[in-house]
Structures are given as C-alpha cells and as structure tokens.
Fold:
Amino acid sequence: MKRLTTIMLLGLGAIFALSAQDVAYNFDQNADFSKYKTYRWVKHPQSLDIDQITLNQLKTSTEAELAKKGLTVSNTDQSDLVIVYQLATQNEKEITSWDTGYGYGPGWRGGWYGGGGMGMSTSTTNTITIGAVVLDMYDASTKNLIWRGKASKTLDPKAKPDKRQKNIQKAVAKLLKNYPPKKK
Structure:
C-alpha cells in the first residue's frame, strides 16, 4: 500500500511539473535600464502566426506588466525600446507507464523453479503542445539586444478561453518579474 501511495504521489508531481511554465531571461549587464520609458512592438519574421484574439491577450498582459515597471507603449516609430516578439509551438510526446512490480509466470524461487504472482502494467502515450513566447528588447538608438526572456507552455490552442488567458497572464507576470534587472 505504501508503494502504491508513493507511485501515485510521484505521478501527481510529474503532472504538476509538466504543467508548470518554464521561464528564463538574460540581460546586458552594462545597459542602463532606468533610461527606458517607451517601447513599440515588432513581430519577428520567423514567428508563428496566431489568431488576433490570442495576440491581443498576449500584448495586453505584457503591456499591463510593463506599465507596472514604468514603461508605456508608443504608437509611433519613436520609442526607447523595440520589443521583438516570437511565438512558437511544438509537439512533445509523453509516455506514462505504471507497473505493480509483480510478474506472472515461471521463475527462480529459493532454489526451485516455480510460478510467480499476477502482475499489471499500463502504458499511455500523450502528445503535449508546448507554446513558447520569446521577448527580445532592443535599445532603439543603438539597436543592441539588452534583454531577452522566454516563457514556455504559455500558448495552448486547445485550452478553453479562460484557461488560455490565465496561462498567458501567469507566464507574462513570471517572465517580467525580474525586469528591470537588479544591479549588483
């Protein structure tokens, strides 16, 4: 019974780990982030095309987080930053299997060749779509990359609308949590 409980807990942990969003960022340590007040959006040429509703949700969530940091979006070609966004999805296979650890059939048992017990194993294969969002921030005047962030498991075209919006908001908040970066 204890073994079954442990297996179930490990299985639940794996499910939560798979559903967690992975976030990473990097930045130019010589950049003066205090001078950036405005930004404009540019789509990366290799970015996945997504529907306008999802793109608006992504931009709205990002703009709300950046507003908390003192940045405002510019509707002109003049801005301090250029944010180049790239969206991607990929399919990843996941194989889940479970085994009781007991087998059925002949085997070596304490010096004699005898039978075993009954056993059970199951296996399932699922395909998971991982939707990644990459934000690159460039200094508009120097055209140098000063900040890059990536959040995976953000875009899920199969999710219900409210779940999709929640995933985007959560990922963007995690992604921009450490923007602007703290100087040491």
User: Anything to note?
Assistant: The longest helix spans residues 2-19. Strands lie at 23-27, 38-43, 72-73, 81-99, 106-109, 112-115, 121-139, 145-151. The chain has one domain: 22-95+118-175.
